[in-house]
Amino acid sequence: MKTLPIVLLAAAVGVAAVAGAAVEVPKKTEVIDGRKTTIALAVAHQLVGLIPNETVKELLNVILDVFAKEDFDYWSEVKDEVEALVGDYINLHNMHQVEIYQEDLERLMKRYNEAPVESDTYPDKNAQAAALSASVISHRYLTEAADQNESMILHFQDIASIHVLVLKDAAETYSQPSLPPSRWWVDLDEELSHNLKYGRSLKEDLRKWRLNQLTCETDLAGFSCTMWEWLGVTCYDYVTAKDLVTGEESTCKELRGRHDCDSHCSNFATLKETSVDQWEQTKVTSVLESWEELKKVASANAVQASRFYDPVRSR
């Protein structure tokens, strides 16, 4: 069998080398700060074209360095970014549990990074990828929480992206042109299917929830004012748009019976809608798009995949 997607990726790398283009090293290009660049975004920036082993190893080291950095709390930065959008509507319990799980995740990432491709005496990358994958799946409930799950969207993407990164690396590492692709492509394809289905739904739910936090109230001039209009007293109606998350209010004042403020609330909602869309476009959409592109490669290889994760050793 011929694994066309792998050949295409290799060819693309070859063209870059001929043209003199150097493969970017993650440590030089990614500054993961939890705000402008999350772990998921850092992975997304390089996911589809990553060369296995050294580049992946370096990117995993960048992520590990972020976790180990003194006087810097990555998850606190992520939490602040979420709070900027949803306010107090956050699942603090699960966010704290993710911070606790980080220690296990770090250990699994280090073991995968340091493991040899083949070994008869030490757990190889094949075994370490399986351990990390099983752990992430078993802890999925932390980021796919039943309560206030919209607030966990960045946590979900970060851990899912680390998982996808390792699965892709294992799939490419254990696939050889002369043999059917590694079974890891099937695992990667299945996880991407899950991530995309859940991620798209979560993105839409977050948008709906956030826009539902906008209210519009109309306060018509009362009888205590209108009863004196015949004397020339001027009465006003008030239309107030509110954002229940931020507490922001915007009030429009119009002469009683006029329609100057008819579009006030819709204009307020449009501004908020644009803000939500920009937040999701910046932090969520590009991650989903990178998974969609990788899904095409994973699916093509999964169809042809061996029933073995390491087809070479199975011979």
Which tags fit this structure?
12 helices; 315 residues; 60% helix; single chain; Delta-Endotoxin, domain 1; mainly alpha; three-stranded antiparallel beta sheet
Kindly describe this structure.
The chain has 315 residues and is mainly alpha-helical. The chain has one domain: Up-down Bundle (Delta-Endotoxin, domain 1). The chain has twelve helices and three strands. It has helices at residues 4-18, 26-29, 39-46, 54-68, 74-86, 92-114, 125-138, 153-173, 184-211, 223-226, 264-304, 311-314, and strands at residues 214-219, 236-243, 249-255. A three-stranded antiparallel sheet has the order 1-2-3, with helices on one face.
Helical content stands at: 55-70%
Q: Which descriptor suits the 3D outline?
A: elongated
Number of E-type strands: 3
CATH architecture call: Up-down Bundle
In brief:
The protein is built from twelve helices and three strands. With 315 residues, the protein is mainly alpha-helical. Helix 3 packs parallel to helix 8 and helix 8 (153-173) runs parallel beside helix 11.
SSE blueprint:
Layout: H1 4-18, H2 26-29, H3 39-46, H4 54-68, H5 74-86, H6 92-114, H7 125-138, H8 153-173, H9 184-211, E1 214-219, H10 223-226, E2 236-243, E3 249-255, H11 264-304, H12 311-314
Antiparallel strand pairs: 1-2, 2-3
